Amino acid sequence: MTRQTLLWTLLALLSHWRRHKANLATVILGLGIATALWSGVQALNAQARRSYDDAAAIFSGENASMLVASRGGLFPQELFVKLRRAGANVSPALEGSIRIDDHQLRLVGVEPLTLPRSAPMAHMRERENIADFFSGPGRAFVAPETLRRLGLAPGARPLTERGRQLPPLAALEEAPPGAIVVDIGVAQRLLGREGKLSRLVVADDAPIDPARLAQITGDALRLVGPQEDNELARLTGSFHLNLTAFGFLAFLVGFFIVHAAFGLAFEQRLPLLRTLRALGVSARALIVAMLIELVFFTLIAGGAGVFGGYLMARALLPNMAASLEGLYGAHIPESLALDASWLLSGLVMASAGALLAAGSGLSKTLRLPVLSVARPIAWREAHHRYLRRQGIFASLALLGAGAAFFLGESLAASFAVIAGALIGAALLLPLALAGALTLGERLSRRPLARWFFADGRQELPGLSLALMALLMALAANIGVGGMVEGFRLTFTGWLDERLAAEIYYEATSPADAREIEDWARAQTDIAAVLPVWRARTRLDGWPVEVIGMTPHETYTAHFPLIEATPDVWRALFEEDAVLISEQLARRLGLALGAALDIPTSGENFRAHIVGIFPDYGNPRGQLRIAHQRLAAKFADASGVHYSLRVAPEATARVMEEMQRRFGAKIARILDQAEIKKLSTDIFERTFAVTAALNTLTLIVSGIALFASLLTLADMRRARVAPVWALGATRSRLATLELARVMMFAAGAALLALPLGLFMSWRLVAGVNVAAFGWRLPFHMFPAQWGEVFIIALGAAFLAALLPTARLARAAPSELLKVFSNER
Amino acid sequence: MSAFANAENLAFAQARAPLLCVEGLKKSYATPQGRLPVLRGVDLTLEAGTSLALMGESGSGKSTLLHLVGALDDADSGDISLDGVALARLTESGRARLRREKIGVVFQQFNLIASLTVAENLSFQARLAGRRDALWEAELARRLGLSALLARYPEELSGGQQQRVAVGRAFAVRPRLLIADEPTGNLDEAAGDAVLALALDLVAATGCAFLMATHSERLAARLQRRVRLEAGLLAP
């Protein structure tokens, strides 16, 4: 194979695209969109994961270990003093959450002089102004981006929600996004956690022996490795897996476009390939030239796709950041920072997709006989072969889905069931449509109607990939849309029951809380004062919140329960009993009646489970015990959260009076409507990214249909022209063409309905349960089905409008080209 | 007696009046180099029951003339009248109606509908025109030797068989004019001869006019008249 041969072969191959611009556009568009959607999602995930790692590594770098309270939460500073006196090289830290205006921020208190050298924050030791950090008003370091987000200038001293003033702000590159780093003493004061620490950073060159640790601190502290400490990465894993799954679905839809376009290009280029072979180009040279062509496409379309992915990620990032912050308290910078590996992975994905899509064409080229068979293409035989092959693959995909269904309930198995069902049903679609067309042909009497159906079977293979993509997008729309709507319905009802009190507030300190409580109990407008104290613990390695409940009809009449013993409320308040959140029960494999050892400030509290309650949207586990027991068992319970039962008409008055009377003693006060709005906002944002990906997938499938129709237009003209010549008008034929595409889309929508419902059911009963631990009731939304049906017909109408309008307006000379080789 | 004579005269007059009348027909095509004239003013008449071979070299405009006469394309200028109907006055739907009711077309490439059976292809145009005659279709199938092939699909037939189906489809509607563009171009000599013989039999049986474009002197000799197109004009 000479360079000359290769060059001319390549030029001959590329000349095809000059004459088939629509086909070229389809390849570039499909590959570009598939890469864009995939790499966009990867960019979002990479950005979030890097933030979690940065947040986790703030103290420790990559290798250092930590000491944390055995059951989570805070521990006394004396433990640190004890360890230092015993010669342990540890550095104290305290983390908490503060709010400045509407921005929730992570406050991090450190002691820079003792931080291990590997910790990113240790670099600030080398700063000239480090002395300012401890002396005078101190310094509050923030990342430049966070400073911008707060709309504040360096040197500003904003107030927290507790009315406490921060030290002057200063920009520091090493500070993690969404965090404010201050001296440990300042952090304790700002958070009202004097004498408390949340962790001790162990110097990586002076590890602590666990036995010695137990000698000094008893079982109060436990040693955790750097990876184990990355709680955010653990909690958000499912969120990102969901995102990846949708990204992959979108990629698959885009891949279908490319596959269809390459398949068509191969068919159109068959004579050219044969001529090249007859002229002495070896099969190997032909393959090499086609591969070079493929690399060329990958670089152009993949490159554009990666850039598109960047733009998409940039547009979706604020919503995802808000959702992650609302759900998990994770701070993600809103400006996208990406590295070369992301760019490379996007191009690799584009190359793999292009290679797979072109694979069958390449292998056929390798086996291509130089002389074509004398017989014209046996269309019917090919059609039957095609349907048989589709049927076999569909059966395999459905069998795979069935196997995954019976194999397990893990997240991967749940996604495998959905993927198998989607692919199986998509492969079945052409079979179903071919069956419907045959039936239609048998039932119709009029000649054009018979032709309409018979010719549809010929059109089907060319359109099937685009229709399969449409089916998948529609099913995903019904499935995810149904799940989200179901979630919304359940969530709203659940919020109404769960948030029965009229006012919720958080006092600045336990002392302030007592003062406010005493006042509230004396007010005639306030029917009940309900302490909602909370403490933290850890069960089986998972962070768990323990919340106290008082015997009141707010709970006994309203608090939603999934399962409960008949005398749940009596047992909760009179016995050693506990209510457990659904996701925690599932994670720990616990059922009603099971006993649970809850680590407390002292001895473990052994309680039996008397109820399981839904706790949608909460990634952390939650336990509810009687308030009296919480106060007795957890010395470090927050003691600052309360809710009030007030006559609705008195709510605003009571809130105003509380704010006027107690001012900064109240850190936060919200009425029922506000807290519901906050919760629903978090909910909406959580699904904003999913909804956007869903819509994009639908748009992509519409484009796939449009591109396929545009590419098929020439072939269609050859089939339509004889019927026109025999006496049918162009407008009538164009109308029939439009009707046929819409009929195909309607078929796809009809099949998408049961498939979407199945997907919705698996999302609700499989994916959500495995990913988040909660199971929602399964709802059906017929109005949404109608909407999706109309979307399908609308998409088909729009996609077919241009090609059919062209047919309707085609000059007779264009149609006559089909019949004559001469003028 | 006089009534009979009048009717006879009228019948004679109708028979003698040309079925197809073409006057001053011009047609050109747009090319990157400007407009390319293909027909420069063609005059032609054809009576019912007669046949005419249209000859000429490649590019002389034979197919273009057939397409214009067959109401498949519009002329730049000039008149065509078929069975007393001026084509220029017809709308798109009027031309489509004329095609399906009065014109039979046989193409070089057969242009059968691959997704329909031979029987369905045979009856297709007649059904479009709403003039299906099952007895006539059976007769056509018998004459064309297609009776045993009716349930097959076009791809299962030889080239000669496919062209016989195309001829049958054209005659099923009992056209007033049959046009054929190199109908034997894709067939071997024997098959081509056989197809033409069948077509001429049917022309005689139905009394339609027959206009055929061909390169072959031998085939042209089997038709009643022949004319030659040269540089867009009919040679004297």
Automatic annotation (TrEMBL), chain A:
InterPro entries: ABC3_permease_C, MacB_PCD, Membrane_comp_ABC_pdt
Domain (ABC3 transporter permease C-terminal) ranges: 245-358, 694-811
Sequence intervals crossing the membrane: 243-266, 286-313, 342-362, 390-407, 413-439, 460-480, 687-712, 741-763, 783-802
Domain MacB-like periplasmic core: 465-659
A UniProt-annotated Pfam family: MacB_PCD
Signal peptide (UniProt feature, chain positions): none
Subcellular compartments: Cell membrane
Topological type in the membrane: Multi-pass membrane protein
Domain of life of the organism encoding this protein: Bacteria
Keywords annotated in UniProt: Cell membrane, Membrane, Transmembrane, Transmembrane helix
Keyword Magnesium: no
Keyword Cell membrane: yes
Main localisation: membrane
Protein name: ABC transporter permease
Automatic annotation (TrEMBL), chain B:
GO molecular function per UniProt: ATP binding
Superkingdom field: Bacteria
Name of the protein: ABC transporter ATP-binding protein
Residues in ABC transporter domain copies: 20-231
UniProt source species: Methylocystis borbori
Pfam families linked: ABC_tran (PF00005)
Protein family according to the UniProt entry: Belongs to the ABC transporter superfamily.
Key words of the record: ATP-binding, Nucleotide-binding, Transport
Keyword Metal-binding tagged: no
Organism lineage: Bacteria, Pseudomonadati, Pseudomonadota, Alphaproteobacteria, Hyphomicrobiales
